[in-house]
Each structure stands twice: as structure tokens, then as C-alpha cells.
Amino acid sequence: MDATRTQRQPAGLTALASSVKFWRAVGHTTAHVALIVGGFVTLIPLFWMISTSLKTPASVFNFPPQWIPEPVMWDNYHTALVKIMPFGLYYINTTIITAASIVGKVLSRAVVAFAFARLRWWGRDVVFILMLSTMMLPPQVTLIPQFIIFRSFGWIDTFWPLIVPAFFGGAFYTFLLRQFFLTIPLEMDDAARIDGASNLQIFARIILPLSKPALAAVAIFTFTATWNEFLTPLIYLHSKQKLTVALALSAFRGEYSTSWHLLMAASLVAMLPPLLVFFFAQKYFIQGVVFTGVKS
């Protein structure tokens, strides 16, 4: 009788293992199907944007909706980007502002975060809390005082009001970098100081090289926010030659009508740089977001 039980037990374990594998495979398949369906639903607006950008003005509002344009109007892109406005010039303007903002925000936030995370000085924690409290102040509250200051400098209708503030720190990115800097062992700073390194050398040769994921995350955040910024350029830029991409897109919307086919064509071209940047730098972006919350 004991021999029979011994012979039946392996068969039962095999059946149980097979059942576990089966339901695990079912769970994985269900999860992948759900992700595929969810991804497809998320991409529907993008598909509609591409479809609308290739339509004639009369077919934009066809009902039922026409997903495949007939005829395909490739000339919409040439009309929107060349004939109506110098979209290439606006691309250059936006690139200059975005590149300068990335340099300013990454450098200024990294320096301040280094002081909060690695240096010991009286009142550090109190000042850090005061800095975080500025995140509760909506940026719209400071728009008028900033405008008055920049007007007194003669910076209206220039790129300076869009670039210079990036070099003077900020709470959110400083907090993000500080959290990442805290994950780096302090013993590395002590060893460097024993070898005669200054704080600036420690910052430049140890902290920054080890913080590439966090710095990349800040750069991507800054790129996306600056490239898509609408309100600040609307306030400070008045000349047509100095407009940004976001302001140029608003030109397709009239008081009584909107050229949706041209707007979709220009919007599709305008969204390509953020998509490409995120696609090629998503590894550093995800690492930076994950690692910044490891240690407080």
C-alpha cells in the first residue's frame, strides 16, 4: 500500500506543476493581450492625427469618420510648414531656447542639490524645507512681477526671459537630484578629501559621473516642458520671427474657423523631437525616476 502511494505521488506532483504552468501561461497571455489592447487604444489619437493631416478640408468632418484619406493630401505638410509660415525658423528658435534651458537647469539644480545632499552646513535642512515650500506657489502668481522685472531690463521680445531663469535653480529638479545624490556613499567624498580633492572636484569628478541617470531624467523633463511651453513665450515674444513651435501651432486656429488638416500636419512634425528624445533616452529616464526615491 505504501509502495502504491509512493508511485502515485510523483504523478500528482507532475499534474500540479503542469496546472501551475498552464495558469501562469494564461495569466501572462492575458496580461500581454490587455497591454496590447491598451496600447492600441492609447495610440488612437495619434492615428487620427496622421489621418487628419492627410485629408482635404471637406473630408475632415465626414461622418462616419474616414480613417484612410481619399485622396491623400501630402501637400498639407508643405503648405503648413513652408507656405503659411516659416516653420523651420520656429524650430531653430525653440531649439535654442530648449538647449539653453537644459544646460541651465541641469547645472544649477545639480549644484544646489550637491550642497543639500553632500555638504554639512548650519541650517541646511531648514533651507531645504523652505525651498520645497516654493513648490506650493503657482507659477502664475509670479508672472506679473517677473514681467515687470524683465521689462525694466529691456528683455521683452527677446529669448532672455525664457533662458535666464533656468540658471537660477528650482525646487522640483533640485529635490529629484538631491534624492539621487544621497544614494551615493559619503565614504567616497571622504576618500577624495583625504587625497586632497576640493568640493568642486568631488562634484565634477565623482558625483556628476555617477549621476548620469538622474541628470538624463532632468534633461528629458526639461526638454519636454520647454519644447511644449506656450504661456511664457506668449507673454514675452511678440515678433513673428521669434515665435516658438507652440506659438506657431496656435496660428492655425482662427476666430471663426480652424484649419484642422494643417494644424494636425504641423502638430505631428512638432511632436517628433520629444518622441525621438524619449525613445532614445528612455533607459536613463526610467533609471533616474526609479533611483531618486531609494534614500531620503
Describe the 3D structure.
With 296 residues, the chain is mainly α. The chain folds into two domains: 2-53; 76-291, MetI-like fold. Helices cover 70% and strands 0% of the residues. The protein has 14 helices and no strands. It has helices at residues 2-53, 75-83, 87-118, 124-133, 143-153, 160-163, 171-181, 187-194, 199-210, 212-227, 231-236, 245-250, 260-270, 272-291. Helix 1 crosses helix 13 (260-270) and helix 3 (87-118) packs antiparallel against helix 10. The protein is flat.
Number of extended strands: 0
What overall geometry do the principal axes of the alpha carbons give?
A: flat
- The tally of domains stands at 2
The proportion of residues in beta strands is under 5%
The mean pLDDT is: 83
Spans of at least 5 consecutive residues whose pLDDT stays below 50 are none
State the fourth-level CATH superfamily of the largest domain: MetI-like
The name CATH uses for the topology of the largest domain is MetI-like fold
| SSE pattern, N- to C-terminal | HHHHHHHHHHHHHH
Gross CATH architecture of the largest domain = Orthogonal Bundle
Class inferred from helices and paired strands: mainly alpha
State the share of residues found in helices, binned by percent: over 70%
* Radius of gyration of CA atoms, rounded to a whole number: 27 Å
Oligomer: single chain
Describe this structure in a few short sentences.
The protein has 296 residues and is mainly α. The chain has helices at 2-53, 75-83, 87-118, 124-133, 143-153, 160-163, 171-181, 187-194, 199-210, 212-227, 231-236, 245-250, 260-270, 272-291.
